[in-house]
Amino acid sequence: MSPTTPRILFLTSSAFNNVTGGGITFTNLFKGWPSYALATVHSDPIPVAKDVCEKYYRLSAREIRRWGWLRYLSIGAFKEVSYCATTEIKTRETLFRQTLIKFKIRIFGDGIPQETSLSDELQAWIVAFQPTVLYTILGSNEMMELTEKIRVRFSLPLVVHIMDDWPSTIYRGGFLSFLQRRKKDRLIQQLMGVAKLRFGICQDMAEAYEARYKLPFKWFHNAVDIVAVEQFVKNPLIVGSPIRVAYLGSVFPSVQLQSLIDCCNAIQALRKEGYSICMEIYSPSRLTEQYRESLIVGAAISLQDTICDDMTFFRTLQGMDILVLPVNFDANTINFIRYSMPTKVPAYLAVGTPILVYGPTEVAQVSYAVKGGWGMPVTVRDIEQLKLGFKRLAIDTQLRQDLSSRARQLAKAHHDVRVVREQFQTAIASASASIDNLK
Fold it and tell me: What is the separation, in whole angstroms, between the first and last Cα of the chain?
């Protein structure tokens, strides 16, 4: 691209990395964009990667700070005092913090009021970069307030990309949470209205948001290099002994934890019945270690850290006999990820390892599997049906071949990174061009 390439300022809570779904998606979509024309303002606790973006500004209390006494609930505010501190002091600190947390939940629910400001340091950093487009995934009220302040201060065209249906779920519980919700609704309506482009994470989200906000939406999801993945394509007719089942990805209580536990219980039950089968879970240890006892329900289950290397990741997918895509069945989960699409889906499809999809049909990823015919669905919460699903996928060679073939066809048609990336970057560039044409 030429020196006139649009200079993108990315404001996000999830920056570029090779670990999280958001980080991987952004990396794949922006890869190839000139590094001089991309800069990120973020609050991501995960270490950032610099293979796509080299310029980062990490938000701090200069820009976002908790209101009043709530600052005492911020990370690190109640670090354990030095090793020589007395047990009495440590206990007093812990009890004080626990009391504040309980009070906060009763008053504010799942949110915390925060104040935002466009600090001199951030302004100077943005001025030095000279952006021409502001791209953001929005999120909390403070991130939306900061988005609007940056947009207005620097007269930037705005591009909004929504990853989950958080507008329908955040700021719940607590006596005063309705104040946060009202603010959220006002901010998102304002930002959607002024945005030059609006993106959803999948087609279902784009269609639902067009109806909700009465505005046009495109959709862009993660994508894979179809040509590079060819060497890792699974032969679906080959099933090993033991039958290897795997889940790769993050584990969250509000998304897939309970259904993943169901899968573990089903696999362990099959092992007890004499089937040579095992299940391997690859997930960031910082997320899953706390759930180890619930997931490791027997010798058939193993838990390992996430895979960050692409070659190892795709080779692992190829080496499995069945991949699982679990989603919780509870109403809160459905409301939160109804229109979401996991980052791993294109990779699952491109490799062609048969997929068992376990979750409610109201969720986009499950309905995509049902409509697209690329996964075997188990759409009611039932361990016995799960067991039947695993057994059928292990022995029905025609089913395995059909699912694998359809998955790879869809990956080529809709998830080829060369096509998706070009469309995404062209759309981003058009937001800047539309402003230039008005000057």
Answer: 22
CB–CB of 60/30 below 8 Å? no
Domain spans of the chain? 8-65+114-223+417-436, 68-108, 226-414
260-285 tens-digit pLDDT: 999 999 999 999 999 999 999 999 89
Torsion 363-364-365-371 (CA) sign: positive
Beta strands 158-161; 218-219: pairing state: unpaired
How far does Cα 2 stand from its chain's mean position?
A: 32
Give 3-state DSSP helix, strand, coil % of the chain, rounded to 5: 50, 15, 35
In the CATH scheme, what architecture does the domain 8-65+114-223+417-436 have?
Answer: 3-Layer(aba) Sandwich (3.40)
- Say whether 226-414 and 8-65+114-223+417-436 share the same fold: yes
Question: Could you tell me the pTM of the whole model?
Answer: 0.86
226-414 folds as Rossmann fold (3.40.50)
Our CA angle for 131, 135, 141, nearest 5°, is 115
pLDDT in tens, 68-86: 655 555 443 333 333 334 4
